[in-house]
UniProtKB/TrEMBL annotation:
Pfam families according to UniProt: HTH_3
Keyword DNA-binding attached: yes
Key words of the record: DNA-binding
InterPro entries per UniProt: Cro/C1-type_HTH, Lambda_DNA-bd_dom_sf, TransReg_Diox_bact_type
GO cellular component, one term: cytosol
GO molecular function: DNA binding; DNA-binding transcription factor activity
Domain HTH cro/C1-type as annotated: residue spans: 25-79
Gene3D superfamilies named among the record's database cross-references: lambda repressor-like DNA-binding domains
Organism superkingdom: Bacteria
Organism: Amycolatopsis saalfeldensis
Protein name: Helix-turn-helix
Region entry Disordered, spans: 123-145
Record's compositionally biased regions (Low complexity): 125-138
Amino acid sequence: MTEPGGAQNPMEKVADIASDIGEYIRQQRSSAKISLRQLSKLAGVSNPYLSQIERGVRKPSAEILQQIAKGLRISAEALYVQAGILDLPTGGPVGDSIRADAELTERQKQVLLDVYESFRRENAAARPAAETTQTTTEDTTEESA
């Protein structure tokens, strides 16, 4: 049910995300020419559960998405973005380097990216406060001169 102003209630948003990720997985599976049963075995996920994910009945966890990504031989990050777990990559040399590092697991890459982005957000939030403090100090210095 859509709320006044065209906004969706939270339950509808979850249902849309589950449907979107399920459709995306189905498309990836079809383009890889893998049957549902084959992907189920490759990913270590039960056939009925995988079917429910594809139909949008279930919203898989990040761990299940990672298993499905391995089965499809695609980036777990791509599934995380589709599922709304991750925002679209912002790019930049640090993020690109982390994503490209073959020595790290998908989980390790995600943790590093999360920490890096949290530092960037924290610094961006602190920047206006520091600029305001600096401006106020400069104004006070000018007034006393």
